[in-house]
Give the backbone structure.
Amino acid sequence: MILTAAAFGLIVGALLGLVGGGGSILAVPALVYGVGLPLAAAIPTSLVVVGASSAVAVLPRLRTGVNWRLALIIGAAGTVTAYLGAAVNRLLDPKILLLAFAAIMVFAGIRMLMPSKTAGGACALPGGGVHWRSCLPKAIATGAVVGFLTGLLGVGGGFLIVPALTLVLGLPMALTVGTSLVIIVINSAAGFAAHLGDLQIAWAVTAAFAGAAMAASLAAGRIGTRIPDKALKRGFAILVLVIAAYVAMQALLS
């Protein structure tokens, strides 16, 4: 179990380092179907793993690859709704949660594959500035939705933050990756805190998974800065759709 967790940790960490999201898309299914943890334990374990590896993955991008103001606004908005998501999580059947997980993944993946109608947006003006009057409401709404899903599904939110930052807020992929990683750290911490009341976690599995993920995310973060935006975006979308199909199939057959 420990070796399996470490192997999946390498994959999750590499994904986070390259595209700034998607780690939980792999982490939750990997912990449930690969390692054999119940969903109640997989969710907080996933939050620890993804939060820690995202913190490491953002290190190569700290100076020029993060929009700090947007990251803090979106992260703060999500902190509040993460507790609401965790409360709803306790009321729903695990199969329903996994099917909801798959449905949201399909939506995000398809949107990432669709060509953007416009370049930039209120949050990424051509000159590099931000039009806060129109950007701020979008940023807060994005944070609230992602935070709720963080508490509900045990995800750091990167698989939604990446499409939201590029499609809704108009950030270039190079800036999206680092900004997404900072938001994931904030959301993961809030989501984990929301689950403290009924915490179920296997610390040995968590340590093996997180250690491998942190090492891989740091290495992949350095490589990712040299890969074209379009290739990262398309690869991320395809991976999301493949994992969505697998999760949906497993939930329906279980």
